[in-house]
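# step 3/5: fold
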Amino acid sequence: MKLDYKNVKKVGVVAKIAPELPKNLRILSEILNSYGAEILLEVKTAQAVGESGLDALNLAKKCDFLISLGGDGTIISLCRHCAEISPFVLGVHAGRLGFLTDITMDECEGFFAEFFKGNFNVERPFMLDVKLCKKNGEIIEKVAFNDAVVLSAKVGSAVRVEAFLNDRYFNSYLGDGVIVSTPVGSTAYNMSAGGAIISPLSEVFAVAPVCSHSLTQRPIVLSREHEVKFSSQNDALLVIDGQERYKMANLNYVAVSLSLKSARLIRHVGRDYFQILKEKLHWGYND
């Protein structure tokens, strides 16, 4: 399904609560009203400005596309919670540009002038399917936009994590934990742990040990055909996108694989991921 930019009537806004929120909502409303579109608000965003709103999923169902107004965390949360319908999402950063957000508030007027002419792109980065198998056999299905991490619940304590690749014993990670990341999430915790940076639209995912006690443990990149299962007898936690936590002691295992679900991120024409990467990481600059 394509975004019908010629017939946009309703645009949903999900925002990080900040002092400048009322001003930014007013600016967005004025711009979109000039093109015949109205904005609807997510419930917490609406409450912050004394209005009524909808939960994110129902907002996505009623609107032609959504605006994530905030930082990378805001857009990650929004894409995760609406993964079942994968709405079109435009990331607007109220401050400086992030890895995921595409434009700043100051650029909105110019962006929408081009958007309503059809001058935009849509990127579809894949997410992770994360299946939690409880002790009673119940399966809880989650999605991760950036990463799923198994780590020690006790700061400074090592954790042992057993890994199975396509149901065959694969590895035993001993250290601070292990990260499974999407391509778009490879520049987050994965990068900090020494994992590879992966082009964000690739159909692969990465597994990286965190501060391993063995120098032979190295990050690996796996294809869509692979599923990794993790179990741990230690006091360990599963953390999904830094937003949800589960005790591994309550689970038989956690299974992670590349999902068929993808986000649909609206991008301005000419956006260069590798230029953003270069600027963020200061590659090619002399100190």
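# step 4/5: annotate
The mean pLDDT is 95.
# step 5/5: archive (pending)
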